[in-house]
Specification:
- This protein is globular.
- Among the domains are: 108 residues, no CATH class; 138 residues, no CATH class; 38 residues, no CATH class.
- About 6% of the residues have low confidence.
- Helix 19 runs antiparallel to helix 20.
- Helix content is 65%, strand content 0%.
- The longest helix has 21 residues.
- The two termini are 27 Å apart.
- The chain is an all-alpha fold and 457 residues long.
Length: 457
């Protein structure tokens, strides 16, 4: 097949129907005419993207393996758009070796696309691949630190994870030493003040005492949070959940509490009391935007927040009313998230590798997990079309099923972004199938002013 014949088929035929033609074309050395005059990367990304969306995962994996074998240079130049899927896919199936291989390019070239690096880094964290995270932090920290082109606080995720991993090592050895602790974290951008060190020592070396908790909260809220976080991480470790995961959850929930902190002297119970609209707005803000899909972290924090309030209830610093109010809010929001992300839930099934929260029934936990696992086969459709696929689970899972059904009927903060993405994607794909395709270096047709490859491409 000539280059022109191939390009005509690519332009005018359904990309899902011509997979064998594309596979065969890329199984050989690419013609010079093709590499010089056509957008090779566009063909690769559209083939991968369309088959991934259609849940033709076998085709995606076969195609990526072909590219790695036959066109390693092109693959390495664009690995961030390819290996992110492999990290997700093999994490879902619990294949450690494949997960390690899939993240290898990110560790070798973290700055090629640091946003995507962080998304996969956090996915490994939530799935509990602690050994890989430790290696990644060791290999990548200094390189990221030296880069002055990254905005914001690029070291935050690596530093926070290293802090939690270090604390867990001391906890497991049952021998906390302040000098060693400081020495271990001195290499990282972690500010160990006397106040922080005192709070850490209390959490690591002393048993939780319910007496005096309220006084400590009023005296120094930051110190109180650091100590209470360590007690929470110990609580979670008894449930076989690592410090890295539980610490991440706590830090995100603490940000929510601090957001509404007017610095007034309120009671502990009032401080931890949550309003539904405020929590929904915060959780939604974690989901990312049209450029960065961060829904897995949103799900980790929402599902993880239940453990936080189980813990607060167990140590008796919130009332039963505040606790029940929060659990009800999480069920409402879980219902919306499940209904409006039904075809993508498999990507976040790590929440069912965590031990069941005390406040969630076994039936709800089991049936919810079935929905997450089944979603790997669901095509991208509205909830009304997919509802029948989970009817058995909805019938027996209890109160959460009501919130899932309601969540599938309403538009809110969780669905606005999805609808925008869908409309934008459809418009771009429609234009992409015309004779004049949008090149990766051309202006994006969405009107952002950015190049297509840096925007909707």
């Amino acid at each position: 097949m000539t280059t022109k014949e191939f390009w005509d088929k690519y332009l005018n035929e359904d990309i899902l129907e011509i997979f064998e033609i594309i596979y065969d074309f890329f199984s050989k050395e690419l013609p010079k005419e093709f590499t010089e005059n056509y957008d090779v990367v566009e063909v690769i990304l559209e083939t991968k993207g369309h088959h991934e969306t259609a849940k033709n995962f076998e085709n995606v994996i076969n195609f990526l393996e072909l590219l790695q074998s036959k066109h390693p240079k092109i693959y390495k130049e664009n690995f961030q758009y390819l290996d992110d899927f492999l990290v997700d896919y093999y994490s879902f199936f619990g294949d450690f070796r494949k997960v390690e291989e899939s993240f290898a390019n990110f560790m070798l070239n973290p700055l090629q696309d640091f946003d995507k690096y962080l998304i996969s880094f956090k996915k490994l964290l939530f799935y509990g691949y602690i050994d890989i995270l430790n290696v990644a932090i060791l290999k990548n920290y200094k390189e990221v630190e030296r880069c002055n082109q990254l905005i914001g606080n690029p070291l935050y995720d690596l530093t926070l994870s290293k802090y939690h991993l270090t604390l867990e090592q001391f906890h497991l050895s049952n021998d906390f030493d302040t000098k060693t602790f400081i020495a271990n974290l001195n290499k990282y951008d972690f500010d160990i003040t006397d106040n922080v060190l005192s709070a850490v020592e209390t959490g690591m070396c002393k048993q939780l005492s319910k007496e005096g908790i309220a006084d400590n909260f009023l005296k120094n809220r930051q110190k109180f949070n650091i100590t209470l976080e360590i007690y929470f991480m110990k609580y979670m470790r008894e449930r076989k959940i690592s410090f890295a995961v539980s610490g991440r959850i706590w830090s995100k929930i603490w940000m929510f509490w601090a957001e509404g902190d007017d610095k007034m002297k309120c009671s502990l119970n009032d401080y931890f009391h949550v309003k539904e609209d405020e929590f929904e707005k915060y959780i939604s803000s974690l989901s990312g935007d049209i450029f960065v899909d961060n829904r897995s972290e949103m799900i980790a924090v929402l599902w993880g927040s239940v453990y936080v309030y189980d813990f607060l209830k167990e140590i008796e610093i919130i009332t039963q009313e505040t606790f029940k109010n929060f659990i009800n809010i999480t069920r409402i929001l879980k219902g919306k998230v499940i209904a409006q992300n039904l075809s993508d839930l498999w990507n976040s099934n790590f929440v069912h590798l965590w031990k069941k929260p005390d406040s969630i029934s076994t039936i709800e936990f089991i049936e919810e997990e079935k929905i997450f696992k089944k979603s790997i086969h669901f095509k991208h459709q509205k909830f009304t079309r997919l509802r029948s696929e989970i009817s058995n689970e909805l019938a027996i899972m209890g109160e959460l099923s009501t919130h899932i059904i309601i969540g599938g009927k309403v538009d809110d903060l969780f669905s606005i972004e999805e609808d925008y993405n869908l409309k934008n994607e459809n418009r771009l794909l429609e234009s992409a199938r015309t004779e004049k395709k949008v090149g990766r270096n051309e202006p994006c047709p969405c009107g952002s002013g950015k190049k297509y490859k840096k925007c909707c491409g």
